[in-house]
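I hope you will forgive my troubling you with a question about protein structure. I set the record out below, with my sincere thanks for your time.
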Amino acid sequence: MTLPTSTYRIQFRNGMTFDRAIECVPYFKALGISHLYASPIFAATTGSTHGYDVTDANKIDPAIGGRAGFNRLSSALKDAGLGLILDIVPNHMAASTESPWWRSVLKLGQESPYARYFDIDWSERLTLPILGKPFEDTLSDGELRLERDPENGELVLGYCDMLLPLNPGSAELVPASADEPAWLSNDKELIARLHEAQHWRLIHWKEAARHLSYRRFFEVTELVGLRVEDEQVFEDSHRLILELVRSGQVQGLRLDHIDGLADPKHYLQRLRAEAGPETYIVVEKILGRDEKLPASWPIAGTTGYEFISALGHLFIDGGGLQQLGTAYANIAPDMADIAAGLRAAKQLMVERNFEGETTRLVKIVDGLYPDLERAGIAAAIRELLIAFPVYRIYGSKGRLDTRDGDVLGRVVSSAAEKLADQRAIDVVARLLKGEVRGADAKEFRRRFQQLSGPVMAKAMEDTFFYRYNRLLGLNEVGGDPAMTPGGVETFHTLMLKRARFMPHGLSATSTHDTKRGEDARARLYTLSEGADVWVQAVERWREMNRDHLVELPSGLTPEPNVEWMLYQALTGIWPEDFSNGEAEALTGRFTAYAEKAIREAKHGTSWDEPHAGYEAAVRAYATALLSSTNLAFHEDFGTVMRPFIEAGYLNSLSQTLIKLTAPGIPDIYQGAELFDLSLVDPDNRRPVDMTALSASLLEGVPVVSLTVPALKQRIVEIGLHFRKRQPELFAKGAYVPLKVSGSRKDHVVAFARELNGTYAMTVVPRLMLGWLDPGVLFAGPEFWNDTMIQVPASFDGLRCDLLTGRMLEPGGELSLSALLGSQPVALIEPWEADIEEHEIIT
């Protein structure tokens, strides 16, 4: 397999086209990346901002340049010596009439050649949850109309801006003399009869949670599940993808939502066989605590969320986190029991948001075991889904493997504690183990496995992460808000495992799906170091802004839990020098985040049942925090923030250098080579000024002369070029934890990568809040005092710090006073050239 040395994620659309990307190729090369990593490029719905709503998997989207534009980009990358990784979407397509396949299914039903391409329950008419109210009300209010499709002249049923194709057999219901079908739109009986004659039926969008006849992506009804387990579906949905791979235009694939597939192992094996052994393949997969990828998957690894979680062990102070937890429990006592909070979020998903999917599972078991009480079956399925500690297991044919069998065993034991009817849970467990034969049993197993992932994702990431706000830096995709940080030793253990089991997966710190930018998260980590200051400040700020609370029937709004969350979110994005000129843009971003956060939390409001008064009160409070009239708060907030911001900058540099040198392939999210203080999407998907990025890459300027954010970009540049010079070291090299001694040993993490006598040492500080002078991103020699790094005897000889060019004497110890006493971080390699012109550090 040809491995990247690094990747750079680009979000196409929103102004980024192939030709715009071509203009950036010199910058990508100068920065040092080996592969551009592109968001989905295939035809998507009109106006798509992300490309995951694919309408034609065998057509490159004209909106970003089409095939011709792609070919130009491919040539430009090849000329620059860069590769290309494509993000592909095997799990779903757009449930849109813009999709030829979906349109055919709507028109012809089960007679369509594409009817089996989508995961549809054809025991009933295809449900389309697109109405803003029940069908009867929509019909009565005259919101449905007959007209001719302007593209082909066929009769269609119109609703809002949608034109729905009609069953050809229903044309006889329309009077032959109706040259102008719009005149018939007032005939509600005709419209109703036509509706009944279709292969589909229109329903209120709110009914989708209770009843939907097709598998969707999570809760998104606009995305319909694909049956790529079917050989023909795989072939037809991957034709262009594989053409691009085989032509040499694409060197790698990133697979979106692998856990949504019926049989990920079989899919990956076929993809590997078709794409060939040299194609680099990674999957979007969230790993639970102590979970490893199945060894049978022929891939390089994941897209790297678990790497983000590992960093939290380094940069969060355990004692301070406990202090935050105590204060938070006083502010939000209903969130003190973390296990109960997560259970409540999962129960909500199973019983309401995914009620239809759960009911379908109950029906299958009820048909297989009619002697069981339906209520007992439902309870067993509910408790099993709630008990899952990981996204899913992967049983397809035969019994579960040892790993999945162990997971299911723990799940069954946990669920059984909640149930009186043990027979029902035993039956469901046997189905999941593959001990029951037959088509219905197989369908149950498949659908349960495809449901447990969405339940976990929506409960944890899109509900609990917005309810439990102890420390927002922990509320990250793939993370655990309840985590207890284990420090340097835990981090080393995780990296040793990563080097053994997934050395070539991506290492991410920001993605298009993370809850906040990497540097906002790095700053939020520092709150655990200054917990007492933060807690006192929040009490003061709440009092200062008390007049902005709104009295609602439910009480003063926003409630203390939301206030606590808002002050943390504001911490993550607060500019170093706040001015009224920045307030307007910041307010728009902040209030949009506040509205999304409270809707995701699903307490005072939600996406499906928005509470206008509650949302208005929260938006007003968020707006007031940034109002130009709130000067006293701004001054106080800015004063408190200053040391947190500076310590956060140093955290950012530390985590950046770790990502560049730890096991895995560093992935740079667009613009995050400078400081990324974004909030959750759509904020983190804002267009990036690539011209400014290129201008800020000041090649040759000494690191000591740079300040943030250019300093971070320079470290990225040096690290990426180093990886390109030493690809084998970082692809195959061992991870070697370095022992640190002395009074400040807890404030540093040091490790090496070693291969056949070649090595690189990474040394970065941690937990530095309160130890930095204003405006200085390192602690002086006196801070480090007697702290020393013990260097392996095999690392003998002179050494050079790549970031500064300074020389280090040989020997068995490195002094932190000399190494980090005048610079933020260090990256060390053996020196193999003339040293006369270089300063030697003792």
